[in-house]
Amino acid sequence: MSRATILSAILSNQPQTTQLPEDLQFDCPAKAAVTEKFIQMINLIGGRVVEIQRIEDINLYATAHYGAGERLITPIEELDFYTQFAGDEDPHQFENIAFAVFKTHFAVAENGAVWITEDRMGARVLPFICQHLGMLVFEDSIVSNMHEAYQLIGSQDYGFGTFIAGPSKTADIEQSLVLGAHGARSIIIFLLKKEL
Amino acid sequence: MSSIKHPELSDIFNKDEERVNWHDDTLWWIRAKRDKAAHGISEWELLRETASQIKNNVLSNLHNYLIEFEEKAQKNGIKVHWAANAEEHNKIVLSLLQGKGINQMVKSKSMLTEECHLNEYLESNGIDVIDSDLGERIVQLAKEPPSHIVLPCIHKKKEEIGQLFHEHLGTEAGISDPQVLTETARIHLRKTFLTRRSALTGVNFAVAETGEFVVCTNEGNADMGAHLADIHIACMGIEKLIPKKKHLSVFLRLLTRSATGQPITTYSSHFKKPRKGQEMHIVLVDNGRSVQLGREDFRNSLKCIRCGACMNTCPVYRRSGGHSYHNAIAGPIGAILAPNLDMKEYADLPFASTLCGSCTNVCPVKIDIHDQLYKWRQVIVKEGYTSSAKTVAMKVMDFTLSSPTRFKLAGKIGRWTLKHAPFTVNNRLNLWFKNREMPEAPEESFSEWYKRNNSI
Ligand code: SF4
């Protein structure tokens, strides 16, 4: 069997064991600076930030931007277009979603990415198949870099998790940047400000 | 097959000088974006060093990491397969599809499947494969291989792409607007995603500690394929492992900044367990990697994270095009990996370089690329494959002399070569040395030059 052949070839060919390096850690900038950097990155990568005071404010955005005939969906209970998910829906039924909104675990300032796991997606395909994407980010959950991000993820268990940074994009045609490749055409970050 | 293909193929590419200049400038522009992104992070060098050490550790303990990964992945409900070579890999994929009675598959970018020529194999066995990365779809329609590992159709003009879309996807003749063409592809591929029951993806990183794997895309095509399909097959070279999940932080910070200058790809998806009702498979592929692991001088090439930075910066790649390397992976790293698989067939590639060292300087995992190219030359000469070496070494100098701006750059590089790698110039194989006057060695050191030119 190839497994045994491969493993024995590796065992005889691999060099002497070397040590893993120390984990990297950097000083955390002030919270305000982290938020500012995050907003700046979102704009840079083609997203938009809408600051909100309460989760329900997302309803106002949705009614202002989408008509009655358009299909909106969210697993966030506080929202008017909340949908309950059983977890075994046929993913194909989400083909015509115009706008979907999700609650993220945290966001990363250095690259504008948000971290979200399957249990907050309703269905795995949803954040990708929807035409437009909304992500709820709590301001105090923004970390400055990816090292902190993985500290937060730690040993969190999930079936599927993803960092999403900006709308889907491609520059495959002569390096011209086009937003809206196969995933969402746009991303709105609903930034829930800290209570004063 | 003759192994002096690189000069012949690059001659074809060089027939259209305007196009060569455009190709050259485009890649240099991407290289400049990479520099900007790298300089934006004060700990960049520390990150590179850390990534390099993690990868060294992976190679030194690959046996155990693979076993650990397999065990964890299986616990997560993923089926793990082992393939010693390309043929076995292809057969495994085919049998998985046949087992489900599937004859259509959608595939996201995977250089490994290019290396294994999976598409041709599946098609000859009655399976229809559609590549879903836009660049890959374009070269697939053109019946060409990708010319770059990150930017598969970087050699194509938008007018040519417009023509392909006109012929295959029914757009109006003469349309070449990237926005319109991308929208056309979006609609066409959505239909594909929605109708395919099987999806194949590549793997950027696989975590031994947790048995999960990470796939990075900007387009979202890997996710669209995988989350809609009944069966998800992920194919990876055995060197893609990393020990712990937290190490992803280092690699995700480096990968896209090195590749395109973006801070991170749009999607960095962590697949750990199959979706309810879905099958998930991983194919672990050796195909020469365990042999390369045993070649002390070349094993470092297995640290590669396929960012493409070494290609974008390479003066030879930029002016000869990816297809001139006649190998799935082009550019400096391709020229190290290919001779491991077939030294005779790829004897020309280590000579398709000026040994300027720019690749080594940009590599995020600190592979000593130009040193390895130099070492391959020695091996190849010793093994007697020199006829190709001669021709290629001369040809490399030919491109660099063919345009005045290139000459300026190459002249400086040449001086460095003269000082630091005398084998390449002071050797009977190098016809350039024989026939032309050598430039005087300059006062300015390479590192000074590099620093100054790098800070544009
Ligand atoms: S060799 Fe280094 S620079 Fe080249 S593709 Fe691999 S990781 Fe990137």
Query: In the residues of chain A, how many domains can be counted?
Result: 1
Strand order of the largest sheet of chain B: 1-10-7-4-2-3
Strand content of chain B: 5-15%
The pLDDT mean of chain A sits at 95
Model description:
The complex is a heterodimer of chains A (196) and B (456). Chain A is α/β, with parallel strands linked by helices and 196 residues long. Chain A has a single domain (29-192), classed as NagB/RpiA/CoA transferase-like (Rossmann fold), CATH 3.40.50.10420. Chain A is 24% helix and 24% strand. The N and C termini of chain A lie far apart (64 Å). Chain B has 456 residues and is of the alpha/beta class. Among the domains of chain B are: 41-287, 3-Layer(aba) Sandwich (Rossmann fold), CATH 3.40.50.10420; 397-453, no CATH class. Helix content of chain B is 54%, strand content 10%. Chain B is built from 23 helices and 10 strands. A 6-stranded parallel β-sheet of chain B has the order 1-10-7-4-2-3, with helices on both faces. A 4-stranded mixed β-sheet of chain B has the order 8-5-6-9. In chain B, strand 5 and strand 6 form a beta hairpin. Chain B is globular, with a radius of gyration of 22 Å. The two termini of chain B are 43 Å apart. At the A-B interface, helix 1, helix 5, strand 8 and strand 9 of A face helix 2, helix 3, helix 4, helix 8 and helix 10 of B. Strand 8 of chain A pairs antiparallel with strand 9 of chain B, so a sheet runs across the interface. The structure holds iron/sulfur cluster.
In short:
The complex is a heterodimer of chains A (196) and B (456). Chain A is of the alpha/beta class and 196 residues long.
Attribute tags:
heterodimer, A: 196 residues, alpha/beta, Rossmann fold, 11 strands, B: 456 residues, binds iron/sulfur cluster, Lactate utilization protein B/C (chain A), LUD_dom (chain A), NagB/RpiA_transferase-like (chain A), FTHF_cligase-like_sf (chain A), Lactate utilization protein (chain B)
